[in-house]
Amino acid sequence: MNLPAAFAASVEAHPEKTAVFWGLEEIPYRALxxxxxxxxxxxxxxLGVQPGDRVGLWLxxxxxxxxxxxxxxxxxxxxxxxxxxxxPDEVNYILGDAGIRVLITEEELARQAxxxxxxxxxxxxxxxxxxxxxxxxxAGQENxxxxxxxxxxxxxxxxxxxxxxxxxxMLSHGNLLHNVESCRQVLRTVQADRIAxxxxxxxxxxxxxxxxxxxxxxxxxVLVRSLHPPRNALAEILQRQATILPAIPQxxxxxxxxxxxxxxxxRLCISGAAPLPVQVLKDFEAKFGIPLLExxxxxxxxxxxxxxxxxxxxxxxxxxxxxxxxxSVQDDQGNLLPHHTVGEICVRGGNVMMGYWNRPxxxxxxxxxxxxxxxxxxxxxxxxxxxxxxxxxxxxxxxGINVYPREIEEVLYQxxxxxxxxxxxxxxxRRGEQPLAFVAPAEGVTLEERPIxxxxxxxxxxxxxxxxxxxxxxxxRNATGKILKTTLRQMASNVGPVEELG
Length: 502
Hints:
alpha/beta
């Protein structure tokens, strides 16, 4: 079994059913299949792509992303989705690291071709605008990818690179099929479901939950054309009667404040990519009456690891392990820790990557006794639910005591008028480190530092309270919605010594 074979089964079962809604277009399964086969035929016969070759996907959200993805897989090659917000220097690094000779892109991004070819002169570009004119694959021609197995590499996902150069997480056909099946069970996805896709398709979560899950179960994708302003996206979700919405916390915050009222066609909403503030979850469910499930994952795990069950959600928790995936909390020596003891979240299962592309030493650093070390810090409660307190690298040491920014951020989100909040640690001569908070107020709201600090002091131990609040219109985020704490740390150098503030 491999991904094209699984897709073929859906095409055979309902060829005329709409697979993708895109604005006014309704693209049936049969059309997706034929175009992806044409892409595969062109890649092999005209561009010389062989099984195992890496082919780049540098596209914004559009239906051709899906046909390009399956076109690459049909010819037995490896798809390498590339963040469409990256600059040419960043793209050049991925092209070189992955050994990409063919890049599927679009005309707007292809304007950067001279900068790419200056470094990679042999690079061949295939603009998706040409897909409509590609010759169809000959009838009866076998796909070169038909013989790929579950152990073969399917997708190379480059991590965000928040700590140095990005690394390519190698995901096999088996890794992705395993994660799709686990998600199908936990989300109870059926053929009648329509999954709204508004997050970037290059992200591992959207590839698995936004593309593979609906297509392999015979459902539909509502590919949202316009995300800004959020009311445009909501209009498309309503028009196409989407039933499942995976999104990021700030989108749900926007829905709470938007002038829309229930009922909505959505039966289920999922929050990922960044921590979901408990207050946002409570406000959303109170307004719409739709379950909002917080989950957790990482690219190295294909990517979903945990999800809150629909009937037994715990606010603030990332939920329970998805089916056929093990999660544990371990200390630095690999010992399993008891309930309510903070340690590193570790994952084991068929969804865990094959390793990092051409980086055996870095692979060895994140794998221990069959467990993937996530770098996230958290604990498990007595009911088996997991909680993330912070990234291991984000932990702050104040006088030798561990301080987890997530705990402070949760309290900041409770303060009226706080739209976004992030906490980092900065050096302190007396205490080693001190927390520094960055806050973005809601529109039309003016916030003051001293009342917020007092609000925190009333709710947190003194050593956890930031001595300074830095106000910004909006916090820096990457393309998938994660707050860029590396950028905040760079900005912190302009704040001044913490011990002299507050």
